[in-house]
Design the sequence.
């Protein structure tokens, strides 16, 4: 049985609160995009910490997301319900970690991540269908982040060669 998430669902369990991106996943239109935007201030907080701690923290947030998204998905009745956005938050923070610190690059990073998250090119769509539970929720966004990072790094390299 699928449950329609609302504020009551959000606050019923701490896992729901985090998996639904502090409520951003309750947006009626574009919850994934809203969740991705929540990553921006969180990444700003991450940047206050020593750079050597960024990847371990992102890895911990990814691993924490597996049970958080698993619990929320089980209680919603759908593994990867559209309101679950913790995966977008963590994955986009990872993309920003590899993005030059300039608003134009952050905009490109956002657009590329959303493109790959929605499009789900091979093998993202295959994994999305075959890996279930919290791991499946987190894994497809991690791959979308890797695609976005690869394109961003390619664009950076190309610009350095061209100018």
Sequence:
């Amino acid at each position: 049985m699928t449950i329609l998430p609302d504020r009551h669902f959000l606050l019923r369990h701490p896992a729901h609160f985090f998996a639904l991106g502090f409520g951003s996943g309750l947006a009626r239109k574009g919850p994934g995009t809203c969740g991705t935007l929540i990553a921006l201030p969180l990444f700003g907080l991450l940047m206050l910490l020593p750079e050597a701690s960024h990847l371990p923290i992102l890895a911990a947030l990814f691993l924490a997301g597996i049970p958080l998204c698993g619990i929320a998905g089980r209680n919603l009745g759908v593994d990867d319900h559209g309101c679950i956005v913790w995966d977008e938050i963590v994955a986009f923070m990872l993309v920003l970690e590899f993005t030059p610190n300039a608003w134009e690059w952050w905009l490109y990073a956002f657009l590329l991540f959303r493109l790959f998250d929605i499009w789900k090119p091979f093998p993202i769509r295959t994994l999305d269908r075959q890996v279930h539970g919290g791991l499946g929720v987190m894994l497809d966004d991690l791959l979308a982040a890797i695609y976005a990072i690869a394109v961003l790094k390619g664009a950076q390299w190309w610009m350095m060669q061209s100018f």
User: Anything to note?
Assistant: Residues 7-161 form one domain.
